[in-house]
Write a structure and sequence with these properties.
17% of the residues lie in helices and 44% in strands. By secondary structure, the protein is an alpha+beta fold. The chain contains four helices and 17 strands. The chain has a 17-stranded mixed beta sheet that branches. The mean pLDDT is 97.
């Protein structure tokens, strides 16, 4: 029997496992996909392991729902901070290691987590959009009537296009709601569907909109299908620094499951 916790950050949900004793086989893609399956397993956009780390408070290992280890997940990073606090590993702030390096984060009494993301130097113009890496690769494209946009069809086309071969990319469609305020919908690779939220995607959108001159502040409000996030940053010497993704991280339930 495997103990698990289920967390969500603005609707982006994760199976969380305490793997500090290395009791879970992280190479078992079939087991990870089963745990993330919404019909036969627990159900989640991804699975995250908390492990010991020599340099930081803990290590984050993230897998997409297809069972494969993936790049950085912003909402997952916020959720693992809340999970680490529940486990007693940390109190109100921490440093943790992830696939894209060391991260700093804080968590308040309301469960709001502010997670420092990687610095971003390169933003590239692509056909109808912009590409940048915020710990995971993201295509950002401005559209109209976002509420009625076919995110699955258009997102999948871009995700699998020759432009982003062979590994593909996450795809964000954006509509401006007001000054420094945007609404987004995201197609995530690995999940291969639209998700209710994507933290690295929200971060990518905020920085991309600033690069296009559509932002005149260093804090941007991002509405996702599952709630609201904010992204704060400094822009120094053509580099986005001190980038923080902020929003809620919530325990949904915990339990036991047979593997």
């Amino acid at each position: 029997m495997l103990s698990f916790w289920k967390y969500q950050g603005t609707g982006n949900d994760f199976v969380m496992l305490d793997n500090r004793q290395k009791t879970f086989d992280a190479s078992n893609e079939e087991a990870i996909a089963y745990l993330c399956d919404r019909r036969f397993g627990i159900g989640a956009d991804g699975l995250i392991l908390v492990e010991e780390d020599e340099q930081a408070d803990f290590k984050m290992v993230y897998f997409n729902s297809d069972g494969k280890e993936s790049t950085m997940c912003g909402n997952g990073g916020r959720c693992i901070v809340a999970f680490a606090k529940q486990l007693g590993i940390i109190q109100n702030e921490c440093h943790f290691n992830a696939v894209d390096g060391l991260h700093y984060a804080t968590i308040d009494t309301e469960g709001i987590v502010a997670l420092q993301m990687i610095d971003v130097k390169q933003i590239k113009n692509k056909a109808k959009g912009i590409f940048l890496n915020t710990g995971s690769p993201h295509h950002v494209e401005i559209v109209r009537d976002l509420a009625y946009f076919d995110v699955y069809k258009k997102g999948r086309q871009i995700r699998t296009s020759e432009m982003y071969a062979p590994k593909g990319t996450n795809v964000n469609f954006v509509e401006q709601e007001g000054p420094n305020h945007f609404r987004i919908r995201t197609f995530e690779r690995g999940v291969e569907d639209e998700t209710l939220s994507c933290g690295t995607g929200a971060t990518a959108v905020a920085l991309a909109m600033h690069s296009l001159g559509k932002v005149d502040n260093n804090e941007v409000k991002i509405e996702v299908e599952g709630g609201e996030l904010s992204v704060r940053f400094d822009y120094v010497n053509n580099t986005y620094q001190q980038v923080f993704l902020k929003g809620p991280a919530t325990l949904v339930f915990q339990g036991l499951i047979s593997l």
